[in-house]
């Protein structure tokens, strides 16, 4: 399926307060993109009435934005609670998720309570999953404060926690009421996390839009300098592509898997090193080099294309050489990838790309994968 | 809304291998009712292809039916796993749920894996919730082996685990592929559990079908003697009523709450005594006496009706006097009920009935509820 063909062709000028709509029937919602919008009470008009809003955030984001969001929500909700979790992928687990349930139940929150996920991908995934499960489902709003969350994880309704035996293995497809991307929050993002977010921006070019790949290459310096117009377009275009894909395949029965380009290798890196050692975006950056190398072995892209993508990933400040995970390194990678959610009947499947912006899910023989691992590891 | 009017009017003759369909658009499914069907490979034809079937059951049901179900599934699935959990409501918690995830991940089960819930309400609720969450959703089949599960909990897609601060507080609406009620399994059910199931059978009369209430009264002796034709009709009519209600309101935005007649009081009893002290059906039986008494205080039913229902609940072998939970007994009940999922903005809401088979959700002042508690407690 040609995703690019289904995209709107709105020009490349940055649009403050741009709205991207994700079309999922009665579960459709808006992704609102703007600067300094999080602290504006007007941003939060039109949400369902409820006795309580509960902001879920972490101890790094809370000092920066919590009081601003709380004040902006106060005119709309009689009670605004906050639930501050420890920061980091290492805490994306059941005990931490349960702190959300404990807080909601201790405060007798009913099933109209609206949860707000204020933070990066981990907060968004956990808050979304908590919303999916609390009293069998309460509404929630994504307020992503990292680049990765704004361009990828907050959009599309994938929620989850990790299990010791696999990343994001316990979760739900559960859509938010709304996503609000405040570009101003990106100014406070540490460089390493910003680069991690660029991995997901880069991803959209190879899988769906060669012109966007060109644009990202041209504007990488402006992006890393966090130039507002560059950020605005990167977030908007990423959300447009993601919305087009998710709108066609909400529950990943097919097409949606292309958004996992680089992720099968990336998940193995994250699990193999222990969650949190590499950031998710770092693992995905490196994983895209591996997936491009695999695409080349399968005759779908040239060596030049692999080099071009590798240079771009390096220019984003991301690792391009994969870590060794064990003495029997390829076997370890393969074992970790066999629990990937795309695996079926024991066969690992990979997203491979061509140079025209098409991607597809492919089972690949272990021997070919092992060669790629050997070629890409330090 | 008049549920009875939407029901099919198929006569009262027992139908072996009767099929009740629950109409939920693309999530529609069949409830198949028969005797000795669980061990027949033909019963399991037509399910989706998958590499693995995983039977989740408990240590009481496993010795009775696990090997029979495993043999019947073997022609359909290359691999049949079993996951045997400890029995009882006290284990309807996260650590036990996680044993399902551990087993599925240890055996590298992919997201086409079909889970089979073989057991009562606890197994059905936990297996359904595990299916809702594992890799963000895998298909599952309900194989209820208790009366309570056959007439109520296996139908309609409510899944959950308990939280120390409230029953069924963490869960999902997630529909099975199919429900298979094998009436033969009811022969091995302990008397106390059988009576608990009768509470949910009794429930359908007051909320939707006065003629069914008459029938249950007439046939209570035959039911308790587990006469096959009486069982077949009780299961079938209960499923028909439940299917009609759920088909109109899958996610309990309104009508579906009527299925909770007696449950608000019942949940307080269960939580107040500690989960597992009373069976769920016992608490619901006693809760219906309380809810009927409340309906009388509100002028909706006569004292005769309350007595009639009380006698029927007693005849089913269920408690009709509520336990004292604390020195400040009514306050304790009220505090426990305030976390009920039907509560909204701190107001507890109750299902009240009239004598014509209509039920509705009503907020009730605490003082009135406290009087009912005082009147109904030992």
Automatic annotation (TrEMBL), chains A, B:
<dbReference type="InterPro" id="IPR030963">
    <property type="entry name" value="DHQ_synth_fam"/>
</dbReference>
<keyword id="KW-0479">Metal-binding</keyword>
<dbReference type="GO" id="GO:0000166">
    <property type="term" value="F:nucleotide binding"/>
</dbReference>
<dbReference type="GO" id="GO:0003856">
    <property type="term" value="F:3-dehydroquinate synthase activity"/>
</dbReference>
<keyword id="KW-0547">Nucleotide-binding</keyword>
<feature type="binding site">
    <location>
        <begin position="145"/>
        <end position="146"/>
    </location>
    <ligand>
        <name>NAD(+)</name>
    </ligand>
</feature>
<feature type="binding site">
    <location>
        <position position="158"/>
    </location>
    <ligand>
        <name>NAD(+)</name>
    </ligand>
</feature>
<keyword id="KW-0520">NAD</keyword>
<feature type="binding site">
    <location>
        <begin position="121"/>
        <end position="125"/>
    </location>
    <ligand>
        <name>NAD(+)</name>
    </ligand>
</feature>
<dbReference type="Pfam" id="PF01761">
    <property type="entry name" value="DHQ_synthase"/>
</dbReference>
<keyword id="KW-0456">Lyase</keyword>
<dbReference type="InterPro" id="IPR016037">
    <property type="entry name" value="DHQ_synth_AroB"/>
</dbReference>
<comment type="similarity">
    <text>Belongs to the sugar phosphate cyclases superfamily. Dehydroquinate synthase family.</text>
</comment>
<dbReference type="InterPro" id="IPR050071">
    <property type="entry name" value="Dehydroquinate_synthase"/>
</dbReference>
<keyword id="KW-0170">Cobalt</keyword>
<feature type="binding site">
    <location>
        <begin position="87"/>
        <end position="92"/>
    </location>
    <ligand>
        <name>NAD(+)</name>
    </ligand>
</feature>
<feature type="binding site">
    <location>
        <position position="280"/>
    </location>
    <ligand>
        <name>Zn(2+)</name>
    </ligand>
</feature>
<dbReference type="GO" id="GO:0009073">
    <property type="term" value="P:aromatic amino acid family biosynthetic process"/>
</dbReference>
<keyword id="KW-0862">Zinc</keyword>
<feature type="domain" description="3-dehydroquinate synthase C-terminal">
    <location>
        <begin position="197"/>
        <end position="343"/>
    </location>
</feature>
<dbReference type="Pfam" id="PF24621">
    <property type="entry name" value="DHQS_C"/>
</dbReference>
<protein>
    <recommendedName>
        <fullName>3-dehydroquinate synthase</fullName>
        <ecNumber>4.2.3.4</ecNumber>
    </recommendedName>
</protein>
<dbReference type="InterPro" id="IPR030960">
    <property type="entry name" value="DHQS/DOIS_N"/>
</dbReference>
<keyword id="KW-0963">Cytoplasm</keyword>
<comment type="pathway">
    <text>Metabolic intermediate biosynthesis; chorismate biosynthesis; chorismate from D-erythrose 4-phosphate and phosphoenolpyruvate: step 2/7.</text>
</comment>
<dbReference type="GO" id="GO:0046872">
    <property type="term" value="F:metal ion binding"/>
</dbReference>
<feature type="binding site">
    <location>
        <begin position="185"/>
        <end position="188"/>
    </location>
    <ligand>
        <name>NAD(+)</name>
    </ligand>
</feature>
<dbReference type="GO" id="GO:0008652">
    <property type="term" value="P:amino acid biosynthetic process"/>
</dbReference>
<feature type="domain" description="3-dehydroquinate synthase N-terminal">
    <location>
        <begin position="83"/>
        <end position="195"/>
    </location>
</feature>
<dbReference type="GO" id="GO:0005737">
    <property type="term" value="C:cytoplasm"/>
</dbReference>
<keyword id="KW-0028">Amino-acid biosynthesis</keyword>
<dbReference type="GO" id="GO:0009423">
    <property type="term" value="P:chorismate biosynthetic process"/>
</dbReference>
<feature type="binding site">
    <location>
        <position position="200"/>
    </location>
    <ligand>
        <name>Zn(2+)</name>
    </ligand>
</feature>
<keyword id="KW-0057">Aromatic amino acid biosynthesis</keyword>
<dbReference type="InterPro" id="IPR056179">
    <property type="entry name" value="DHQS_C"/>
</dbReference>
<feature type="binding site">
    <location>
        <position position="167"/>
    </location>
    <ligand>
        <name>NAD(+)</name>
    </ligand>
</feature>
<feature type="binding site">
    <location>
        <position position="263"/>
    </location>
    <ligand>
        <name>Zn(2+)</name>
    </ligand>
</feature>
<comment type="function">
    <text>Catalyzes the conversion of 3-deoxy-D-arabino-heptulosonate 7-phosphate (DAHP) to dehydroquinate (DHQ).</text>
</comment>
């Amino acid at each position: 399926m040609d995703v690019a063909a289904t995209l709107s062709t709105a020009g490349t000028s940055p649009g403050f307060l741009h709205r991207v709509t994700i079309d999922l029937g009665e579960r459709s919602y808006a992704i609102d993109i703007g600067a300094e919008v999080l602290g504006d009470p007007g941003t939060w008009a039109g949400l369902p009435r409820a006795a309580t809003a509960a902001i879920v955030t972490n101890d790094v984001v809370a000092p920066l934005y919590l009081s601003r969001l709380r004040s902006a929500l106060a005119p709309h909700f009689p009670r605004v609670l906050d639930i501050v979790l420890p920061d980091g992928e290492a805490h994306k687990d059941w005990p931490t998720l349960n702190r959300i349930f404990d807080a909601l139940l201790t405060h007798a929150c009913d099933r109209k309570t609206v949860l707000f996920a204020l933070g990066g991908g981990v907060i968004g995934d956990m808050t979304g999953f908590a919303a999916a499960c609390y009293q069998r489902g309460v509404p929630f709003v994504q307020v992503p404060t990292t680049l990765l969350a704004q361009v990828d994880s907050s959009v599309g309704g994938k929620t989850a926690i990790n299990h010791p035996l696999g990343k994001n293995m316990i979760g739900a497809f559960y859509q938010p009421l709304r996503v609000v991307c405040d570009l101003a929050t990106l100014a406070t993002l540490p460089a390493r996390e910003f680069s991690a977010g660029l991995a997901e921006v880069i991803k959209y070019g190879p899988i769906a839009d060669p012109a966007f790949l060109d644009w990202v290459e041209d504007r990488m310096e402006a992006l890393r300098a966090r130039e507002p117009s560059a950020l605005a377009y990167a977030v908007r275009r990423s959300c447009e592509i993601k919305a087009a894909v998710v709108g066609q395949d909400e529950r990943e029965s097919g097409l949606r898997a292309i958004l996992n380009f680089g992720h099968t290798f990336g998940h193995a890196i994250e699990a193999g090193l222990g969650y949190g050692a590499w950031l998710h975006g770092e693992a995905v950056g490196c994983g895209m080099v591996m997936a491009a190398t695999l695409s080349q072995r399968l005759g779908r892209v040239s060596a030049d294309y692999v080099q071009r993508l590798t240079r771009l990933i390096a220019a984003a400040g991301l690792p391009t050489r994969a870590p060794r995970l064990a003495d029997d390194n390829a076997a370890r990678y393969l074992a970790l990838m066999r629990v990937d959610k795309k695996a079926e009947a024991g066969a690992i499947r990979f997203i491979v790309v061509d140079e025209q912006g098409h991607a597809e899910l492919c089972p690949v023989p272990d021997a070919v994968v092992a060669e790629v691992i050997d070629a890409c590891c330090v």
